[in-house]
Every structure is written in C-alpha cells, then in structure tokens.
Specification:
Man6P_isomerase_rcpt-bd_dom_sf, 4 helices, alpha+beta, flat, single chain, four-stranded antiparallel beta sheet, OS-9-like, Putative glucosidase ii beta subunit-like protein, two-stranded antiparallel sheet, OS9-like_dom, Cation-dependent Mannose-6-phosphate Receptor, Chain A
Length: about 130
C-alpha cells in the first residue's frame, strides 16, 4: 500500500505528460502530421520551431517554405511606379476599429493606433 502511494505522484505526472489528441483537434489551422517519427533536432530539410503542448510535451513543428509564386516575386514596376502601401492604407485611419471574435478571444485592430487581444469576463474586457 505504501509503495502504491509513493508511486502515485509519478503516475499522475506521466498521465499529464501523455500526448493529448484533443489538443490536436482544437487547432484553428491546418496541421499535417508526418507518418514517420522525427527526433527533436533531426534535420528535416525545412525551417523548424520547437513547440510545447499545454501538458509540457515538446514537439518539433516544420514550417513550409514560402510558396509565393515566383512570377509575383519579380515585377516590371520600378520602385517609383509601385504603389506606396502606407499611402494606400491611410484611409483606414478614419474608419472604426476592426473587431473579430473567434472562440474565447476577441481581436481589435485600430489602424495606426493599437492591436488588442482580449476576452470578455463578467462584462469587462480581460487579458
């Protein structure tokens, strides 16, 4: 009985560190899991970022190369002829802030002023 009680913290820690499939299902973007395991630090031929699940399990996220078509990369326009992006965005200053709520979070973008991420708790913005 004493041995079982002594092992209980270890068992709880192992259970919490177990890979959580529910976390994978809750992603808001496309995730492609490779069929063969890759050890952290192995060269996968792509840019990688070390990530951690909410349970502390580390994994390696491969970032795809830029897939922007090459024909758009080069332009015949000279720098003087190209539209000035800041000038094109200037009318946004006089418009109301853009707000988007997705699940728990609300995002607010006020051009030239602020970008906020928050959630509403007890009728007040938090976070």
């Amino acid at each position: 009985m004493v041995a079982a009680v002594a092992l209980l913290p270890l068992l709880i820690q192992c259970a919490l560190a177990y890979f959580n499939l529910e976390e994978l299902r809750s992603f808001n973007y496309e995730v492609d899991i490779v069929s063969t395991p890759v050890k952290i630090g192995d060269d996968v031929g792509q840019s990688v970022m070390l990530m951690t699940t909410k349970f502390g399990q580390e994994y390696q996220c491969s970032l795809p190369e830029n897939s922007y078509p090459a024909e758009h990369a080069e332009s015949d326009e000279t720098e003087e002829e190209a539209p000035n992006v800041l000038k094109l965005l200037e009318p946004l200053r006089s418009l109301p802030c853009l707000t988007k709520t997705r699940n728990w979070w609300t995002y607010e973008i006020c051009y030239g002023k602020s970008i906020k991420q928050f959630h509403v708790e007890n009728g007040k913005p938090e976070g």
